[in-house]
C-alpha cells in the first residue's frame, strides 16, 4: 500500500495553503482534490477582500494561483475523492474513489462545506432544470428572464446582485422581516431597482412540469399564498460542512463542524488536523481558511518531528 507522510484532503484555500507550507518543509504532501477542484471559490465571481489582490480577482483565477504555488514547491496534486477513512489505526487508512487505499502518517482535513437545500420535493425534481444553488454557474441561462432567490445572508445578496445584472427581475425571498447579511450588502440589494424583496416569505412549492415556470410562496404572517412566474430558482441558504466520512472517528458539533483544540487545528485523534470551513462556522472566509491551512501544516511538521525524536530515543 502506498505510504504518504502528509495527506491533504481538499483543494480550497485551506488545502492548498497547507500544501504550500508542507511542501516547503519537505513533508512531500499529497493532495486529493475532491470533485470540486478549487472548492467553493470556483463558484464565486469577484473576490475583493483577499489581501494581496488590490484590484480584486475572480475566484477561479485565485484558485489557479493557489494551485500553481503549491505545484511550484512540488506538491503531488491528484484528482480523487476520499470515500472512507479508518482513523482507528495508525498509520491511517484512507480510501480514494472507493477502490484505492493509501496509508497516511498524518492527515490534514480541508474538505470545506457544500450548499444547503430547502428539502422540498419540487426542488429535487427540477434540479438542473431551472433550480440551482449557484447563481454564478447558472445565472447565464436566465439572461433577460425572471428568477427567484431564497436566502438573506451575504451569499444570497451577492448572488441576487449578480443575477440582477443578467436577469430582467430578481424576486428575493426572505423568511424573516430582516436580513442576516452585512449592512453594505443589504443596502446594495435594496438600492437595485430590479430586485424585489419579499419579507416573511417562505417557499411553498416550485411549479413546472419539466422546467421551472413559477414559485408558490407563502407569507408567514398572513398565511397568504402567491404565485410568482419565474424561469430560474436559486437557493442560497448557507452551507453544510463536508465531514460525513469522518463520523464515528472525529468529534464534531451537531451541525457536523469538526471540533479542534482551541488555538490549534488538532482534532481528537493525534495526527489528524482540521482546517478551513470543515471546522469553521463563524468566519468562513478564504483568508481564514488559508490561515488554518497554514496552522495545520506547521502542526503536522511539529508532530512528525516529535515522533521522530521519540523513535530515536527508543532506538
Ligand atoms: P448564512 O448562514 O450567513 O445565511 C443563510 C441565510 O439563509 C440566512 O438568511 C437564513 O435565514 C437563510 N435560510 C436558511 N435556511 C433557510 C430556509 N430553509 N428557507 C429560507 N431561508 C433560509 O450563509 P451565507 O452563505 O450567506 O454566508 C456564509 C458566511 O460567508 C457568512 O459568514 C457570510 O458573511 C460570509 N460571506 C461573505 C461574503 C463576503 O464577504 N463578500 C460573501 C458571501 C458570504 P435566517 O437569517 O432567517 O436564519
What does this structure look like?
- This protein has helices at 13-24, 59-72, 121-125, 135-138, 154-166, 183-190, 286-314, and strands spanning 2-9, 30-32, 46-47, 57-58, 76-78, 82-86, 92-96, 100-109, 113-115, 131-132, 146-150, 169-173, 195-198, 201-207, 214-219, 225-229, 232-235, 239-241, 272-274.
- By secondary structure, it is an alpha/beta fold.
- The protein has two domains: 2-114 and 239-314, 3-Layer(bba) Sandwich (FAD/NAD(P)-binding domain); 117-235, FAD/NAD(P)-binding domain, CATH 3.50.50.
- Strands 1, 2, 5, 6, 7, 8 and 19 form a seven-stranded mixed β-sheet that branches.
- A hairpin with a 3-residue loop joins strand 7 (92-96) and strand 8 (100-109).
- Helix 1 (13-24) packs parallel to helix 2 (59-72) and helix 5 (154-166) packs parallel to helix 6 (183-190).
- The mean pLDDT is 95.
- NADPH dihydro-nicotinamide-adenine-dinucleotide phosphate (NDP) binds at residues 49, 118, 150-156, 158, 175-176, 180, 237-239, 284.
CATH topology annotation of the largest domain: FAD/NAD(P)-binding domain
CATH class of the largest domain: Alpha Beta
Sequence stretches where pLDDT stays below 50 over 5 or more residues: none
As for the number of domains, it is: 2
| Overall shape | elongated
Q: Which features characterize this protein?
A:
7 helices; binds NADPH dihydro-nicotinamide-adenine-dinucleotide phosphate; FAD/NAD(P)-binding domain; elongated; 19 strands; alpha/beta; 27% helix; seven-stranded mixed beta sheet; five-stranded parallel beta sheet; 27% strand; 315 residues
Amino acid at each position: 500500500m502506498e505510504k504518504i507522510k502528509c495527506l491533504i484532503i481538499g483543494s480550497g484555500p485551506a488545502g492548498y495553503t497547507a500544501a504550500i507550507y508542507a511542501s516547503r518543509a519537505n513533508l512531500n504532501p499529497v493532495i486529493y482534490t475532491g470533485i470540486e477542484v478549487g472548492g467553493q471559490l470556483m463558484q464565486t465571481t469577484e473576490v475583493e477582500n483577499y489581501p494581496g489582490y488590490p484590484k480584486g480577482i475572480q475566484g477561479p483565477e485565485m484558485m489557479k494561483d493557489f494551485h500553481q504555488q503549491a505545484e511550484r514547491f512540488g506538491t503531488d496534486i491528484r484528482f480523487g475523492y476520499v470515500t472512507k477513512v479508518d482513523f482507528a489505526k495508525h498509520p491511517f487508512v484512507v480510501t480514494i474513489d472507493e477502490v484505492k487505499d493509501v496509508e497516511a502518517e498524518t492527515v490534514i482535513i480541508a474538505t470545506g462545506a457544500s450548499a444547503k437545500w430547502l428539502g422540498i420535493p419540487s426542488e429535487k425534481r427540477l434540479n438542473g432544470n431551472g433550480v440551482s444553488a449557484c447563481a454564478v454557474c447558472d445565472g447565464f441561462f436566465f439572461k433577460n428572464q425572471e428568477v427567484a432567490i431564497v436566502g438573506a445572508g451575504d451569499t444570497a445578496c451577492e448572488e441576487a446582485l449578480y443575477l440582477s445584472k443578467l436577469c430582467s427581475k430578481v424576486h428575493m425571498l426572505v423568511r424573516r422581516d430582516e436580513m442576516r447579511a452585512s449592512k453594505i450588502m443589504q443596502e446594495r440589494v435594496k438600492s437595485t431597482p430590479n430586485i424585489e424583496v419579499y419579507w416573511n416569505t417562505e417557499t411553498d412549492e416550485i411549479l413546472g412540469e419539466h422546467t421551472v415556470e413559477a414559485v408558490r410562496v407563502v407569507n408567514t404572517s398572513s398565511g397568504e399564498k402567491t404565485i410568482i412566474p419565474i424561469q430560474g430558482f436559486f437557493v442560497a441558504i448557507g452551507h453544510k460542512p463536508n465531514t460525513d466520512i469522518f463520523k464515528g472517528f472525529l468529534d464534531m458539533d451537531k451541525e457536523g463542524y469538526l471540533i479542534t483544540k482551541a488555538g490549534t487545528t488538532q482534532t481528537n485523534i493525534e495526527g489528524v488536523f482540521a482546517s478551513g470551513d470543515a471546522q469553521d462556522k463563524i468566519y468562513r472566509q478564504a483568508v481564514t481558511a488559508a490561515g488554518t491551512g497554514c496552522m495545520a501544516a506547521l502542526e503536522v511538521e511539529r508532530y512528525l518531528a516529535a515522533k521522530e525524536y521519540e523513535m530515536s530515543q527508543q532506538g
